[in-house]
Amino acid sequence: MDFITALGKLLSSSRLRELYKSDTESLANKFNINEAERSSFINLDITKIEAQAKTLLSKRFHEVVKILPGTTALLGELAHQQFINYSESFWPEGVDRHLLDATSFIQYLKRNHICFCKAEYNKVKFNLKRKKLSIHYLSSVEINGRARKAIQVIYQKSRSLNELYFFLG
Amino acid sequence: MLVGIAYRRELFEWIISCPEAVGCVEITAEHFFDTTGNILDDLRVNYPVFVHGLGLSLGTPGRLDQTYLNKFSEICHRVDAKWVSEHIAFTRTQDIDLGHLNPVPYNEQMLKVMHEHIDELSDQCQRPVILENITSHLSVPGTMPETEFINRLCETSGCGLLLDITNLFVNSRNHQFDPVDWLNQISPEYIIQTHVVGYSCISGQYEDYHSESIQPVLWKLIDQVLDYAKVQATILERDSNFPPVEELGFELGRLSSRVN
Asked: Are residue A36 and residue A69 in the same domain, yes or no?
């Protein structure tokens, strides 16, 4: 394995970082790092690797907060910890990675019966699928402290996403 | 020297109105990979355009992602880019996309990897390539200092340096070194373009969140860089916490008056 691949593995897995701390040589053997790069791997500063790994997750979280302000507000102080709990299970790829991350985070919350903003989830899916129009039923939208049923209409106009709510009852 | 701004969707109306302060535009290629509208044509007609990459991951051994490279190249041709830029970094490996920039070891092997990728990028895009220094809390063990790595890479591959002055400042604070000493070790002819934006400082750690106005201490370093090298273009790179456009115009005006 080359050094960059090994470093990527360390940065993306807290379990491997723990292994590195407890027995660096064994991990280097397990990765079968080529001889020329082995000393670079052995001499990594694991404290700095932890800091970099934390930075990577913070940047991901920062992007997800921008996409899901309602959901992260609902979660309050727990939002960051929930994201950390979720984050190592999925590393999104490609140009839509922030949208994929947001979608996957909501799916994690849903699976674990943790609150999230359904209307926001609809918007993320709308963006990801490059739709022009989508219509959703929302069983509960809070308006002035009162929960109401609503129809959410999302549409694309002038390069931006727009939405309308029709409240029922 | 051209002075301009990094294109962001939030600034579309302002940029497309061609304010006097904006003399050129840098676009991030991957923001336009699936664009069907005519924004790129509007930009090309009104400004000199530079194309910046985030995800080519030049530091990853092996060939570049051909799909990504093709899309990148298509954008370059569409806006008739003056040059293209990427980072001295890796963002992914063969098995994981870390999504953000990570430092590479400064050694002979990495020089070879980066050189091959610069050739690949320049062949595909048919344009000069310049590479940007990144910020990182992590220093990867290598066999030479960053400045030597940059000089040698520029010398052997023919690429230039996109000096991110904010990144240099942030690293100098986090890793306790003198940014002017660092600057003096770089051959001035390699510095083609610069990036500037205010830094962030949270709990004593300096960060490049691209969300602040340029602070006085940074203006001083910008002046020192512009005295040191004959920079061809400077881009103000704001990503969030956007101020009124007048404030961006003021910063651009100050940069222009500094050099012209």
From this structure: no
B109 interfaces chain A, CB cutoff of 8 Å: yes
Q: Rounded to two decimals, what is the model's pTM?
A: 0.90
Q: Quick check: B99 and A91 CB within 8 A?
A: yes
User: What pLDDT was estimated at residue A148?
Assistant: 87
B30 part of contact set with chain A, CB < 8 Å: yes
pLDDT tens-place string over residues A87-119: 988 999 888 899 999 999 999 999 999 999 999
Of the candidates A7, A48, A97, which has its C-beta nearest B139's C-beta? A48
pLDDT score, position B133:
98
The domain containing residue A139 runs over which residues? 131-169
Which two structure tokens, joined as six digits, stand for B144?
Answer: 């030479």
| Beta-bridge mates of residue B77 | none
Interface contact A45-B37, CB threshold 8 A: no
Query: Which residues have C-beta within 8 Å of that of residue B254, sequence separation ≥ 6?
Result: B219
Which residues make beta-bridge pairs with B51?
B27, B84
Are B37 and A159 inside 8 Å of each other by CB?
Answer: yes
Task: Specify the pLDDT at position B36.
Answer: 66
Work out the minimum CA distance from A164 to partner chain B, whole angstroms.
Answer: 22
Q: What per-residue confidence (pLDDT) applies to B96?
A: 92
B140 to chain A: closest CA residue = A44
Q: How far is A25 from chain B (nearest CA, A)?
A: 16
Any A CB within 8 A of B54 CB? no
CB burial string B131-168: b at 16+ within 10 A, e below: bbbbbbbbbbbbebebbebbbbbbeebebbbbbbbbbb
Q: Are residues A57 and A126 in the same domain?
A: yes
Q: Is A152 helix (H, G, I), strand (E, B) or coil?
A: strand
Low-confidence stretches of chain A (pLDDT < 70) are: 158-159
User: Is B139 touching A (CB cutoff 8 A)?
Assistant: yes
- The total number of structural domains in chain A stands at 3
Of the residues B16, B36, B104, B140, the best mutation for testing chain A's interface (the one with the most A CB atoms within 10 Å of its CB) is B140
**pLDDT for res A142:** 78
Q: Tally the domains of chain B.
A: 1
What CATH number has the domain bearing residue B64? 3.20.20.150
ipTM above 0.90, yes or no: no
Same structural domain for residues A93 and A122?
A: yes
Domain enclosing residue B53, as ranges:
2-256
Q: What parts of chain B have a pLDDT lower than 50?
A: none
Residues sharing a CB contact under 8 Å with residue A112, sequence separation 6 or more, in sequence order: none
